[in-house]
Amino acid sequence: MLELCADLGGGKTTFTRGLARGLESQDTVSSPTFTLKKIYKGRAGLEIHHFDFYRLNEPGIVADQLAESLKDLKVVTVVEWSDSIRDVLPEERLCIEFHPTSDVAEKRTMHIHYPESKAALIKELETNLTEVEP
């Protein structure tokens, strides 16, 4: 599970677009702010379930949908604006914070917070990171 943290316009959906591209999705990735959840199909039967809780004060039934996504091993769950559903999120998750740089308005730095059990995965990902244009 990926928890994406940034201000409005901070790069969360752009990151999800890159994730979908990496999973060879042909779907158009856009912010689910008004629909709360979007699903993107990827290779080998994988899916991305992209949640955005920005406009949600009370998680209600959407928290149940999130819990179902988290249980499915063929789903990469991506969550934006997680404050209202924090008690539903697993402790074993990656939290990616996006911060603007001072030199280029469109450029971001990423800080990844993760449990020790994910350290090897993060090291592998860091060695394979490439900079791409959104």
What can you see in these coordinates?
With 134 residues, the chain is an alpha/beta fold. The protein has a single domain, classed as Rossmann fold. It is 24% helix and 25% strand. It has helices spanning 12-22, 60-71, 119-127, and strands at residues 2-5, 37-41, 47-52, 75-80, 94-100, 108-113. The protein has a 6-stranded mixed sheet with strand order 2-3-4-1-5-6, with helices on both faces. Strand 3, helix 2 and strand 4 (75-80) form a beta-alpha-beta unit. The protein starts with a strand and ends in a 7-residue tail after the last helix. The model has no long low-confidence stretch (mean pLDDT 88).
Write the layout of secondary structure elements.
Blueprint: E1 2-5, H1 12-22, E2 37-41, E3 47-52, H2 60-71, E4 75-80, E5 94-100, E6 108-113, H3 119-127
Parallel strand pairs: 1-4, 1-5, 3-4
Antiparallel strand pairs: 2-3, 5-6
The overall strand count is 6
**Spans where pLDDT lies below 50 across 5 or more residues:** none
Q: Helix content range of the residues, please?
A: 10-25%
Taking Cα atoms only, what radius of gyration do you get, to the nearest Å? 15 Å
The CATH homologous superfamily is named P-loop containing nucleotide triphosphate hydrolases
Q: Quick one: biggest sheet?
A: 6 strands, mixed
First-last Cα distance: 22 Å
Shape: globular
- The class by helix and strand makeup works out as alpha/beta
- What's the mean pLDDT score? 88
CATH class descriptor name: Alpha Beta
Number of H- or I-type helical stretches: 3
Number of discrete domains: 1
Strand content: 25-35%
In the CATH scheme, what's the topology name?
A: Rossmann fold
